Amino acid sequence: MSVNSRDILELRNRTGAGVMDCKKALLEAGGDLEKACEILRRKGIEIAAKKKERTAREGLIGAYVHTDGKIGVLVEVNCETDFVARTEEFRNLVKELTLQIAAQAPRWISPEDVPEEVRKREESFYWEELKESNKPEEVKRKIVEGKMKKFYEEHCLLEQEYIRDPEKKVRDLLVEAIAKLGENIVVRRFVRFKLGEGDDE
């Protein structure tokens, strides 16, 4: 079968993938745009996994101050080369991350960054909630796991829903950028200031 250029353009706009990759994905999906998106997303995850171990020391520090001057964000995002750091795509990614942090106020980058004492405190709280329940232990465990997953989705940047597209996580945004730019990309650190707000840790 053949695919038309309109579908290729639509898929490219949705995913940011190259023209040939879009064409191959559409052919593999039998012309189904949604399936082609999924194929490209899977491919992006595979590419990202392969590049994960590569050192990322270049990049940019992005800054954002909300129009009312009451919220400010600084974020360091690393890539492998200065060439990629200067591209419009990378700059846009950094900008989107500053907006995400300003809007959603994450506390950590990923679940791995959550301090052990905080993790234990949350788990203990959820177990305490279920103490009087007659549910089997395995069911309780799954409930606690579900609540912890929700906790990470609320407080960890990479697990949050992307503000412009709730179907995506911020992690997906990074994976897509890695697949498109061909380099490892890492959110190194961030800080969010809110006027009059102290450190609540």
Features:
201 residues; alpha+beta; Helicase, Ruva Protein, domain 3; Tetrahydropterin Synthase, Chain A; 3-stranded antiparallel beta sheet; two-stranded antiparallel sheet; 8 helices; 53% helix
Tell me about this structure:
This protein is α+β, with helices and mostly antiparallel strands and 201 residues long. The chain folds into three domains: 5-51, Orthogonal Bundle (Helicase, Ruva Protein, domain 3); 58-110 and 156-194, 2-Layer Sandwich (Tetrahydropterin Synthase, Chain A), CATH 3.30.479; 115-154, no CATH class. It has eight helices and five strands, in the order αααββααααββαβ. The protein has helices spanning 5-15, 19-28, 33-51, 82-85, 88-104, 116-129, 137-155, 170-181, and strands at residues 58-65, 71-79, 161-162, 165-169, 186-194. It has a three-stranded antiparallel β-sheet with strand order 1-2-5. Strands 3-4 form a two-stranded antiparallel sheet. A hairpin with a 2-residue loop joins β3 (161-162) and β4. The longest helix is centred in the N-terminal third of the chain and has 19 residues, at 33-51. The chain is globular and about 60 Å long. The model has no long low-confidence stretch (mean pLDDT 86). Its main location: cytoplasm. Residues 50-197 form the Translation elongation factor EFTs/EF1B dimerisation domain. Residues 81-84 are annotated as: Involved in Mg(2+) ion dislocation from EF-Tu. Keywords: Cytoplasm, Elongation factor, Protein biosynthesis.
